[in-house]
Amino acid sequence: MMAFSPSFAQQIEYNKSTFGTTFTSDGEKLSMKELTSSLSINPEASTFLKKGKSQSALATVLAAAGGIMVGWELGGALAGNGINPAVAGVGSLLILIGIPISSGGTKNMTRAVDLYNANLDSTTYQPQKTEIRLIMDGKGIGLRMKF
Length: 147
Fold this sequence. Notes:
Elements: E1 2-4, E2 12-17, E3 20-25, E4 28-29, H1 32-39, H2 43-78, H3 85-123, E5 130-137, E6 140-146
Antiparallel strand pairs: 1-5, 2-3, 3-4, 5-6
Helix pairs in contact: 2-3
């Protein structure tokens, strides 16, 4: 039995969890580079993806800087040096500012995927599985094709 399934643009799915959002296509996890490449055929989706990636990068930088500041102060307190409230406060503020920015980035990336998938439904050929089978019985040999 031979089976043909043309490889055209596939729908992309996303799964949100506590540890972030993962993007998959045909059951396989997509890297950000693969996601960017897939969405490049849709200019509007690409715009939302770029905006979402920028927001996520900014949120990561803010959270890391804030975490370092708070962690440094907590480490100093554990060592008996006391806490500088200004540094701990600024670090906490950076973390808090990063949370809604990160959420906005995720929303923009998932909106990009939704736009891409909506465009697939309306303009892209949806492949169907085609089968060709070799059939043999007492009467002879033949080919059967299913579309």
